[in-house]
Write a structure and sequence with these properties.
Chain lengths: ~120, ~200
């Protein structure tokens, strides 16, 4: 049986142990699960110890972050500019190629003349 | 003055990327929690700062697409958890050096004046063991235990952050605790944990 599959919520027994007769009876009836819950409870309590370790954000964290944001923005602008110019140049090149080869393109007048 | 999620999101959507003042207020409000989670997951200040910066860069570029401002906090913590998880996975796949090379001695030195020198020494040893064991855990299990047991986040918030179902999260956390306990006995055999006055678990701020 795995956590959460029984009629008693295992995580509740681990995180918020209480002396309710219902829980005590269930634990007595299920010694294997009770041992597992006790083990999980011990880990839950032990790991809370790490919460007490003070955490200090580095003093120039925000300044460095904003520098990176500005760099990213500049790169994105340059990329957009390059793509815009690049795509325009590509379109001009394609137009030039097709214009130099008029025979490859369907000519509307000629098509109309064929139909009539 | 603290700004509401709506003010932060709408302000950033209106002014970024040219004007970063609202974004700076957002960073100021969330940086401690994001950095703390990154540090607890990554295990050292250098990686934690790199990851926390990456999280806020994603926020900077992605906030224009955030439709519901009320979900700002959950969204940022989801980015944090996922960014750290990806980094842990990458680190695991390329790791060749000793895991203890990451040991961040600085975080273990804090002493409690209410304890005797022997108790403080035991507490330092316990913290070293706990961090060492956490580092050896599978990244997915590590994320679960840090969010739930170290930071005291509610199960539902963890499920939302990792876009997983509530019952699946509960089951994974239970399995992660059992895996941690087995590993802890290998990493720190004979540690007298019963002699250390530990913190009472509860909801972290």
């Amino acid at each position: 049986m795995a956590a959460g599959e029984s009629d008693v919520e295992w995580t509740t027994l681990v995180d918020e142990p209480e002396d309710s007769p219902e829980h005590s009876a269930w634990l007595l009836e299920h010694p294997v699960e009770a041992a597992e819950i006790a083990m999980a409870r011990r880990v839950h309590v032990l790991l809370a110890e790490l919460r007490a370790i003070p955490v200090t954000v580095p003093p120039d964290f925000e300044a460095r972050l904003l520098d990176r944001c500005r760099q990213d923005t500049t790169i994105i602008h340059l990329l957009e500019l390059w793509l815009a110019r690049g795509s325009r140049a590509l379109l001009e090149l394609l137009a030039a190629i097709f214009n130099s080869l008029p025979g490859l393109l369907p000519v509307p007048d000629a098509a109309g003349a064929t139909r009539s | 003055m603290l700004l509401s999620s709506v003010e932060l999101v709408r302000g950033c959507q209106r002014t970024l990327p040219d004007d970063t003042r609202t974004f700076e207020a957002l960073v100021d409000q969330y940086k401690e929690r994001v950095f703390a989670t990154s540090l607890r997951l990554m295990g050292n200040y250098h990686d934690a700062e790199e990851l926390a910066q990456e999280v806020f860069l994603k926020v900077f570029h992605g906030i224009k697409g955030l439709d519901d401002p009320a979900t700002l906090g959950a969204w940022i913590y989801r980015i944090t958890a996922n960014t750290c998880f990806d980094a842990l996975e990458k680190r695991n796949s390329r790791r060749t050096t000793s895991l203890d090379a990451d040991q961040n001695a600085e975080t273990l030195q804090a002493e409690d004046g209410a304890l005797t020198p022997e108790e403080n020494a035991l507490r330092r040893e316990l913290r070293r063991c706990l961090e060492s064991t956490l580092r050896r855990l599978d990244p997915a299990q590590r994320v679960m235990l840090v969010l739930r047991d170290v930071e005291g986040r509610p199960y539902q918030e963890i499920a939302d952050s990792l876009t997983t179902g509530l019952s699946a999260v509960k089951m994974r956390i239970h399995r992660a605790r059992l895996a941690f306990q087995r590993l802890f006995e290998v990493v720190c055999p004979g540690l007298r944990t019963s002699e250390v006055r530990t913190q009472a678990p509860g909801r972290a701020g």
